Amino acid sequence: MSICGSAAPCRVFGISRGIRARDFDLFNSVLLSAGTSRTIHYVIYQPRLDTLSANGLTLAVRTWGAPSSRPIVLIHGWGDTGATFHHLAQDLAPQTYVIAPDLRGFGDSERAPHGYWFPDYLADVDAVVVNYANARPVVLVGHSMGGNVAGLYAGALADRISHLVLLEGFGLPPTTPDQAPGRYARWLNEAQSPLEIRDFLSRAALIAHLKRLAPRATNDVLEWVATQWATPRADGSWRLKMDPAHKRSNPVLYRREEAIACWRATKASVLLVAAADSDFRKRFPRFDVLAEVAASFRHAREAIVEGAGHMLHWEQPRELAKLLLDFVRTAP
User: Fold this and answer.
1) How far is CA 251 from each of CA 45, 151, 191, 226, 254, rounded to the nearest angstrom?
2) Where are the alpha helices (DSSP H) in 52-165?
3) CA pair distance 328, 332, nearest whole angstrom
4) Can you give the pTM of this predicted structure?
């Protein structure tokens, strides 16, 4: 969020052309400095929640900023929602039109009654791009699983993407055909048992869980994420919103060679972002995954976000926003 320094009275409105006053909440904070009250005015960009009919389902889509600004589409990871980009959006919205859908079966989007097939996520992203970008190339940002989705989409429909940013979404480890029997067996066995989603006994228990995922995230970020990840129940417990069917194994083995082919077809400028304290490299013990992915794109930069783990958009939203804006401004 944009807050001016406390050394002197100041007002930060940061309202871009085309944004209406009702898109903001304006707060006053009173600080005591040398015995004198000083008023700070700052703006929080509140998300606008839309629904989009796409591919037979209703998707929840949140936006921040002016629709006339450059579109930037944020794709969340597994178990997450578009709403948790809220704190990142605070520094993006003054300059861009931020668009963050909940992928099918996550957050507030409708659940798919017959399960989930990975290409459907690409179709959901395409529906968002078509309906919100107004025929303009978009900046496409994907985190974790969302990065895997974004990387495939950017190669499949390359002309729709001006810039591609992968936040620890560098594909999965390679598989081999001999793994297929075991994968099919696991999928068949899972189909015989009902899947359940996790409940948390209290809001405090949920926030403690989120704190373990993102130990450097501020309390206000974690409080916000809690309300977007889960809903309270009559007994005081909190239930995650995501469809438990997402926990079912994919019977089709991941084919890294196909992902690399899509990366090579991408025309956009690419930024690969890793978190300094993430363990993602442990999942790729046989090769330098960041170097391999960078070599698979025509124009790729690499960046490391310090003081963050895998949930870097929760832990370092302002640093990440600066990195994204600088990339869009300087990359061709």
Assistant:
1) 41, 21, 11, 31, 9
2) 86-92, 118-132, 145-156
3) 8
4) 0.87
Q: Which of 257, 258, 252 is nearest to 180 (CA)?
A: 252
Q: What's the CA gap between 85 and 331, in Å, rounded?
A: 23
Instruction: Count CB atoms within 10 A of the CB of residue 41.
Output: 15
Tokens describing residue 90:
């605070």
Q: What Å distances lie between residue 57 and 88, 104, 123, 198, CA to CA?
A: 27, 8, 11, 24
Residue-wise DSSP of 233-258: -TTS-EEE-S-GGGGSPPSSPP-HHH
Identify any residues that bridge with 303 across adjacent strands, giving them in sequence order. Answer: 273
Distance between CA atoms of residues 206 and 76, nearest Å: 19
Measured distance CA(78)–CA(15) in Å, rounded: 33
Which residue ranges form the domains of the chain, and what is each CATH number?
10-45 (no CATH), 48-174+254-330 (3.40.50.1820)
- The predicted-structure confidence for 167-182, as pLDDT tens digits, reads as follows 999 999 999 999 999 9
179-226 pLDDT, tens digit each:
999 999 999 999 888 888 889 999 999 999 999 999 999 999 999 999
106, HSE (Cβ side, Cα atoms, 13 Å)? 23
Strand pairing category for 230-232 and 161-167: unpaired
Residue 88's φ and ψ, nearest 5 degrees, are: -65, -40
CA distance linking residue 127 with residue 104, whole number of Å: 12
